[in-house]
Amino acid sequence: MDMSYEVRTRLNPMIGFLNLLVDDDVESPEERQELIEDSYDASVRLLRTLQYMENSAKSAASSS
């Protein structure tokens, strides 16, 4: 597993969604809410990826 790729893949959408919110480039309250929810979902996926990578590293270290 390419850790850098996995982290970037999860982080890029989050940065994009948050950038739209920071720049106030949102057309409606509904779109703003959707971007917030998408950012949250992306952050949860990133956390799961990092937890998986940590568990994999621990498992590899203990089997060595």
Helical content, roughly? over 70%
**Averaged pLDDT, please?**
90
- Major pleated sheet: none
Q: What is the overall silhouette?
A: elongated
Q: So how many helices? A: 2
Number of strands: 0
* Derived structural class: mainly alpha
Unreliable stretches: none
User: What is the first-to-last residue Cα distance?
Assistant: 18 Å
Strand percentage: under 5%
How many whole angstroms does the radius of gyration measure? 16 Å
What is the H-and-E element order? HH
Please tell me about this protein's structure:
This protein has 64 residues and is mostly helical. The mean pLDDT is 90. It is built from two helices and no strands. The protein has helices spanning 3-22, 29-63. The radius of gyration is 16 Å and the shape is elongated.
What's the arrangement of secondary structure elements?
Elements: H1 3-22, H2 29-63
